[in-house]
Amino acid sequence: MRVVGKDARLLRGPTGVDLSYSTQSVTLGGGESVDVIIDTGNVSKGTYLLYTTNMNFLSNNEEGFGGMMTEIIIK
Amino acid sequence: MITKSKILDFQKSVVIAIGFMFFTINSHAAIEGITGPVFDLSARADHLSTPDGGSVLFWSYAETTKSTGQYPGPTLIVNEGDVVTVNLSNDLNVPVSVIFPGQGLVTTAPAGINPGLLTEEVPPGGGPVAYTFTAANPGTYTYHSGTRMELELEMGLVGALIVRPTIMGVDHAYNHADTQFDREILFLLTEMDPGIHLQVESGDMDLVDFTQRFPNYWFINGRAAPDTMRPVNDALLPKQPYNCMPIMHPGDRMLLRIAGGGSDLHPFHHHGNHSRVIARNGRMLSSSPGAGADMANNEFTIQSVPGQTVDSIFEWTGEGLGWDIYGHPTNDPGTLLPFEYAADHGKPIPTLEPDAKDLVIGPFYSGSPYLGSSGPLKPGDGGFNLNNGIVFMWHSHNEREMVNRGIFPGGMMTMLIIEKHPDPLVVINP
Asked: What is the number of domains present in chain A?
């Protein structure tokens, strides 16, 4: 995915330098925001997980497989 | 979520804890610290004070000439190119050392007598050991212990290092015009788990389980809110000499030097406007030599991670608010005030102020929404905003860090006060 904005501002330098970047993971503190674009043009159909890599957050209380996780479905 | 009852609590505790503050607009043009390039420091134990009445054992890099500890270590201010020497003695009962992340080769004298994992160490009761390096690059840095870091940083052996550029001088952060500033302020962000400190005080430092670390105090420049807003060198906080009270005029460029001095990430949220991030880790965000800070971006929450520093320039003029911050009358033909946003000149604030009996007035309210103006207040209201400024809370946006042992408000929080330009006189109920 490509991070194109941070805190509701386009990632551009004052002279127009493109500061956007590709990554597979984004770290956010409370109150921060980023805008990312996921280009699925070359991705096969299927279901892909979007999840936090703080693995201990992938649970609901004592039950596994939950928490901060969702799916991206490409039809 | 900040509820009304929390705001009421906030009022009460601020009133109780602060009592009375003495602000002057010029007191923060530059960051407090000591200039070298030779510094005599002693690792020393002492107790710091928290706003909830707590007393916490800490270890510090104190100035050897002082009789107490100080948290954090003194802010070392040097010039680019200086050969910097820190002579470190050790009054603690554990070995200590000091390292300077981001600096080049550090040499020690003696060398190889007590070699630690990262650098020469100072044994208990020993020293001084001289640590010497050349401050080759301007910027914001930290220094901290290089010995048992999980414990010694938690205990307080950390401080900030500021290297000023020689070509552009003291009102620039780096050697380029893009980094010019009118005032600067340091945010050295740290946190403490008081349980660990109690365990160390009980003589059980080797039993501390850092997997169970759970901080309950959060500090800016060694103070938790609302102590952050008390004056520098406040008599009530003899071990915590630095404050964090940003004050500026509209249009001023305020350089924020934000340093992660602890073990946790802190998203530092500066209400009021975006700021322009010009540097990270002591390097200007520049695409090529001479290009200036052309890779700067605008953020409203600076992600501060342990060991990292960020330099960002904050400005505020009220631009785009949709109302005249000075309260000029409608159709006022008068000339604009410095940095006034012309499009909003003469526009009233687009709301009807409720009746006074329906309002709860915060201690920073001047009685008027307009910059530089005041209005009637009920007895006992207001009082912390003598120059009728506009006030924004600046804080960690990890909301749990805005408390002192779970009680809001506190922790990693302070207030920005914007005062009318030029320095206004105190006017009460004009």
From this structure: 2
Residues A4 and A27 in one domain: yes
User: Does pLDDT of B424 surpass 60?
Assistant: no
Cα-flanking dihedrals φ and ψ of residue B399, to 5°? -60, -25
Share of chain B above pLDDT 70, in %: 91
Residue B428 clears pLDDT 70, i.e. is over it: no
Q: What are the tokens at A4?
A: 């194109």
Q: Which of residues 399-418 of B touch A (CB under 8 A)?
A: 399
Do residues A32 and A47 share a domain?
Answer: no
Say whether B301 and A7 touch across the interface (CB within 8 A).
yes
> pLDDT category, B421, cuts 50, 70, 90?
confident
| Count of beta carbons in the 10 Å neighbourhood of residue A68 | 12
Q: Which residue of A has its CA nearest to B305?
A: A29
Which pLDDT belongs to residue B331?
87
pLDDT (0 to 100) of residue B12: 46
Phi and psi of B200, rounded to 5°? Answer: -65, -40
By residue range, what is the domain housing residue A66? Answer: 40-75
Residue B294's closest chain A neighbor by CA? A13
Average pLDDT, chain B: 91
Calculate the CA dihedral of residues B57, B215, B70, B9 and round it to 10 degrees. -100
Pair A57, A29 in one domain: no
CB B226 within 8 A of CB B410: yes
Quote the pLDDT of residue B85: 98
Q: Any CB–CB contact under 8 A between A64 and chain B?
A: no
B155 and B145 in contact (C-beta within 8 Å)?
no
* pLDDT above 50: residue B26: no
Among B145-149, B164-168, B234-238, B354-358, name the one with the lowest average pLDDT: B354-358
Strands (E), B153-305: 158-164, 183-192, 217-220, 247-248, 254-260, 266-270, 275-280, 283-284, 297-299, 301-304
Q: Is residue A46 located within the same domain as residue A57?
A: yes
Show residues of chain B in contact with A7, CB under 8 Å. Answer: 274, 298-301
Question: Chain B neighbours among A 21-60 (CB < 8 Å)?
Answer: 27-33
Chain B residues in contact with A19 by the CB 8 A cut-off are 295, 297
ipTM score of the complex? 0.89
